[in-house]
Amino acid sequence: MKKQLALLVVFIMFFVAMLPVQGFAQYDKALENAIAKVKTVINTDGYDKLNSSISVYDGKTTYNLNWSDSKGKLGNISVTIDSNNNILSYYKYNPSDYLSQRKLPKISKDDALANAKKFITKVAPDIAANISYQEYKNDTSVMAFDYQFFFVRTVNGIPFPSNNVTITVNKNTGEIENYQCNWNFDLTFPDKNGIMSLEDAKKVYKEKIGLQLTYRYTYIGDKADVYLVYTTPDYKAIDAKSGEIIQIGYYYTPVDEAAMKYNKSMGTGGSPDLTPVEKDAVKKFANIISEQKAEEVARANKFLKLDSNYKLNGISLYTVWPDQNKYTWNLSFSKTVDGQNYYTNVGMDAQTGEIKSFYRSVPYNEKSQPKYGKDESLQIAKDFLKDIQPEKFNQVEYTETEPQFKPLTTDQMPRQYSFKFVRKVNNAYFNDNGFNVVVDAVNGEITSYDFNWYEGQLPSTDKVMSPDKAYEIFLDKIGLQLQYITTSPVYEYIPDMSTQKPEVKLVYTRTPGKIVNIDPITGDLLGYDGKPIKVQDKASYTDIKGNYAENAIKILAEYDISLPGSKFLPDQPIKQKEFLYLLSRSMNYYMDYDLNDPKSVESMYNYLAPSGIIREEEISPDSTIQRQDAVKYIIRALKYDKVADIKGIYTIPFKDADKVNSELKGYVAIAYGLNIVKGSNGYFKPNDELTRAQAIMIIYNYLNVE
Questions:
Q1: Under 8 Å CB-to-CB from 126, ≥6 apart: which residues?
Q2: How far, in Å, are 41, 75, 99, 337, 599 from residue 119 at the CA level?
Q3: Ranked by mean pLDDT, which of 92-106, 309-323, 340-354, 529-543 comes out on top?
Q4: Smallest Cα–Cα separation from 216: which of 198, 202, 200, 230?
Q5: What mean pLDDT is reported for the chain?
């Protein structure tokens, strides 16, 4: 063994010695140039360590550089630069920025945007001249460390969304923290000559793409529900020159409004006795067929073809989306014949034994050529569904989709076909319900099958608006946009991709950043929760001019930390639920509550109580609160309450310190020390009702604690 290892080492050394010296010298020189380029635009002073690596992908070379300091005080700087000196990414981490993080920014968004533009111009002037800033109404959280800005490549005045720049700016220092450039440098863009007009595109889009009445899932807690919308079938566009319909890929674009709602439910403590919910869970398991029975059912199924050579390797039981009350057995089988491995995975309804899905591997044999074309394979899929699911098959419609794989040459046939059958009820499609079937074009067998079926009541379609009316709303609220896109096929066997240059086309497609979820009754745009998207302007009040809290009210309103209504009523006592609403918004922006909805208010308390901010015995939503109680909630939010609870060590500098509840002296002292409360003329007035203006000042000061 040692002799073989020695011979291998000698061979490697001989092989390396035979490589041309200029090959290494070329990389040395290129890396030197890359480092020098980066240092002309990015300050690396103080960093005394550099790690580097080289990546070659798709015929393109990139250099990955990482600077750090040996003492660990400066953090690190990471840069990716290509062989043409294009800086593709930049990331800077400075631990001190995060240690001293304040919740309210020191740098305004406008100043941060100006810094972002200066940086792009500095590191990539050619790119900076060909991008446009996309301002979306993104939710801004005071908890965020930075501002994020998104720029889209623009050619001939037309956006090319798949090429873009994302950049983040620290909201306290104004420094660039992250820069990501997604850019194709060798594309050819067609001009606008001969393209159809927007008005003509609207007509073609309506006729050939249009909108589809569709059922969609949403969740209430852990329970699946269904709502009805008009939406676009999938990602399609109109070739602006030929008028043909083409499939386009998905690319990331920030969403204009927050469409995803976050609902958090909190559990309660149990007792040794089983609760009704726990008893119900046990009952569900009582109806589950045994492992042995599940295996018998699988082996008896004629479509699975599990002969005696197949061995059961594993079996597992789990709940599946979207119905958390139903269980599925998953069985894994395998066999080896003549050195070939065969695998079959089966998903089975654990209560009924119904086959819900399966996958059967087919060993590849290049000598075996496809015998079945698309039409023949589609008929095989239909016949299979008629046999295995005759009732449900009559409730689905075959949907033509873009082929997943294309042959390398026109004289080759695909080796498999994938077909989708969508559930259709009352002329509305349920894209998440139906069947997916894969047919092997070599032997005509079904190799993959799965279905999803919602058993609950579906919304009625009786009162939905016409497709024409929905399309008018689509054009008004979402609209079409002229864009550049790239198209490139995905092949069964990938050739040398460096020779494959993406083709750029001009298309009309839906405006990015909008959610195509139109309520078919009201015409509202819906979020993913099936509820209307609230596009609210920042709170603006008519009664705060000249008030001592005016500036704080306006600043917090920019972060949607505000109270509903056009009047703020600064001198009115604030209710407990209103103060805690402001506090919860400052702690977690994505927790949005409706103060007029008792269930929503209850959810807010369910969020705050487990955090220790308020205790069960203190909950009184509609009561007013005293100034000292407001301080108590703030100190708990800061997690200083254990220190505040220490007795006999605090001095309160207010003239009315003797009126402070003895249990809250530490809270008031800490709040004073942190400049959260300052008092008036030397008095704190701990038992006075807290006004809305005073509440805002406390929240504002809390968000400025260093």
A1: none
A2: 9, 20, 25, 62, 47
A3: 340-354
A4: 230
A5: 85
| Mean pLDDT along residues 52-78 | 85
Cβ distance 288 to 317 under 8 Å? yes
The rounded distance, in Å, linking the Cα atoms of 110 and 104 is 15
Task: Provide the residue range defining the domain that includes 661.
Answer: 550-702
Is the bond leading into 322 cis (omega within 30 degrees of zero)?
yes
Element (H, E) at 465: none
Contact 369, 362 (CB under 8 A): no
Answer with the one of 182, 212, 233 that is the final residue of a domain: 182
Please give the pLDDT value at position 10: 39
C-beta separation of 382 from 390 below 8 A = no
Residue 306 lies in a domain: yes
In a domain, 272, yes or no: no
599 and 652: one domain?
Answer: yes
- 3-class secondary structure, 439: strand
* DSSP characters over 26-38: HHHHHHHHHHHHH
Is the Cα dihedral 548, 551, 554, 557 positive or negative?
negative
Asked whether residue 336 falls in the same domain as residue 388, the answer is yes
Cα 597 to Cα 321, 583, 593, 594, distances in angstroms: 30, 18, 8, 5
Q: What is the DSSP string of 168-196?
A: EEETTT--EEEEEEE--SS-----STTPP
Q: Are residues 90 and 231 in the same domain?
A: no
171 and 88 within one domain: yes
Burial of 197 (0-12, 13-18, 19+ CB in 10 A): exposed
Prediction pTM value: 0.75
* pLDDT surpassing 80 at residue 109: yes
Beta bridge partners of 444: none
| Claim to verify: residue 316 and residue 421 sit in the same structural domain | yes
**Are 319 and 444 within one domain?**
yes
Residue 455's pLDDT is what?
87
Structure tokens at 336: 């080896």
* Pairing outcome for strands 480-487 and 503-510: antiparallel
Question: Do 231 and 290 share a domain, yes or no?
Answer: no
Confidence band of 339 (pLDDT split at 50, 70, 90): confident
CA distances from 40 to 51, 168, 173 (A): 18, 21, 22
Residue 1 falls inside a structural domain: no
Residue 362 lies in a domain: yes
| CB of 511 closer than 8 Å to CB of 478 | yes
Mean pLDDT of 586-591: 73
What is the structure's pLDDT at 697?
Answer: 97
* Claim to verify: residue 254 and residue 345 sit in the same structural domain: no
pLDDT score for 466: 95
Mean pLDDT of the region 478-496: 69
681 token code pair? 């003329």
